[in-house]
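Exercise 7.
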Amino acid sequence: MSSAKVLIVLEGEKPEENTLARLQRAFPGELADLSEDLVEYVYSSHIYGLYNKLKEDDGFSDVIEVLKELYPEDEDLQNTNREDISQVFLFFDIDIHKQPIEESCDQLNELVQFFDNETENGKLFLSYPMAEAINICDVENGLMSNDRKLFSIDKCVNDGFKHFADDLNRDSKTICRANSRKNWLIISKANYEKAKWLMHLTSDELSSVLGQMQQAAILQHQQELIKQNNVVATLSAFPFFLLEYVGAGKISEIIK
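Solution. The predicted structure, written as C-alpha cells, is:
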C-alpha cells in the first residue's frame, strides 16, 4: 500500500464525507487504499467557484495550489505538497440552475475533460442533480420509478432536490439506505441500470456495458435531457467512483 495521500475534494461538508466513509466500510478490501490515514478531505463551495478560480490565469492551474490559495485556514492542506498526493478525486453537484444552462453545460464539459485522471489533474465525479441522489433508490424499482426517474432543473432551486430526498426518506418504507455492503450493491446496480437507460445502451447484459459508463459520456447524455427537456436523470456520483476505482470486471462479479 502506498504511503502517498489521496486528496478528496467535496462540495459542502460532512454528509458527503460520511457517504464515502460508509462506502469504504462496505468495501474494505476493494477500497483498502482509502483507509482513514491515507485520505485527506477538502471542502469546496461549488464546482463553478473552483472552475472560475482555476481559469483565472491563462488555462487551468494546478488544483492543489488553487485549493491551498482558496483555503489558507486549512492547516493540513497548507502542509501538503503536490508530491505528497498520489490521487485526487472530486465530487460535486451539477448546480446547473445557478446560471444559464448553456454556460453551465460548457463549463461542465470543460471540467470533465480537465479532471479526467486521478493521478494527474484529478478525477471528477458528478451527482445529478445533487449528492442526495444516493438516498433515493427504491429497493424494488431502483431509480426508474416515475417519482424519481427524472427531476426538473427548475425544482432544484432552494435545495428542492434535497427536500425531495428528505421527504422520500421520511415517508417511504422502501428506500434502500447506503449503510451496508448489500445495500450499496443494490444502489450501485440501480445507478448502472439507470446509466444504461440514459446512454441508450442496448446490450441485455449490464456487465458488458459497464466500461462505457465514463463521466464524460454520462454528461453528454444528461445534457441532451437538460437542454431539450429541462430535466436530469437522477444519478449518484458514488457508485461510478466505485466502478472506476474497483474496475468494471470486479464490479461485474460482485453485483451479480
